[in-house]
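Late entry, written up from scratch paper. The run itself happened at the end of the previous shift, but nothing got recorded in the book at the time, so transcribing now.
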Amino acid sequence: MPRFSAALLLIAVSSPLMAAADRKPPTPDVPAEKYYKNIQVLQGVPSTEVMPIMNFMKDSLGVKCSFCHVTNDTGRWPVERDDKPAKGKAREMIRMMREINRANFPGRLAVTCATCHRGSHEPASMPPLRPESAAAHGAAPSAPSDMPSVDSVLDRYTAAIGGKDAIGRIRSRRIRGTFTAADGKSHPIEITQTASGKYRSSVAVEDGPFTIVFDGNAGSSGGPGWQNPMQPDEIDRIRARALLFPAAGLKERFPALAVSRRESVDGRDAWLVAARDASGRRSSFWFDAENGLLVKTIRSERTPFGDIPEEADYADYREIDGVKVPFTIRHAAPDREDTVAAAELKQNLAVEDSLFAPALPKSGEEK
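Output as recorded:
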């Protein structure tokens, strides 16, 4: 497999551990120990949940996969090997976390890796030098007297981007511009998305285009000569990116919505709308208090060990075909960051469904 930038790999594909698997992708009905080798503490966990768990642990400690796992000069990841002491310690910590939750929180996932590590491989053992604010500990500030209703915030957003009729007339969008990762390197990118939730992006890098395709239900990603089918956590991430208007239809998407508070986002006041989906997973949406536009979202990727947040920031809105569209979108998660800046944006172009056909293994075919 070509050595693509790690930042590109983390957009959608599984980690290098999955990319090295020379067999069909994991499925929910296959337990971890039947798919991976040398599983000692994750027996019974669906094999599709292993990579999200790994991602949560490395994000909680602020490390890379190689902190615990062995790789060799060929780029292969022999994940079953126990050469590194950190891997054994990780198993001890998983057992400890489970026992703490079992004994003190009737099995509820109250204590996680992130509770103590907070982004460092060494857990905090002393209080901070300066006391943190109450807000940093999750205490909600008092609600302002002019707190708007959810309906008024969402109606204002709809009007701000052009109105319901104008939104409904947009069926597709093509963006050409630059993709910039956290390392500051920029590459040409082309993104095509549809109102039905289909998505395709292609980033031009030295080894050839890195492409993500998603047909609304399934997807794949990779470069010349190799493709990885998307797993459920990756599908959720790309499905969110595929939305033409990220805050349209919130009342249909989330059964629980509430205006939480007023906050400053990049120096501008914004209303925070807190949302919960049918599974109880939380999302947050910030709308500019003055112009009504969406300025930031945070969604979470649920794993058996805890939730991983991903933030999206929207800026440089411009009116195209009667609707306002952000020309700059920045995505950030604990282990990645990227910014897409549009140089050209066109809408309602004719788009063939074949453009979004994922490269998936055929029934009975080994990958």
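Residues 1-7, 9-22, 132-140 have pLDDT under 50 and may be disordered.
(Scratch paper discarded after transcription.)
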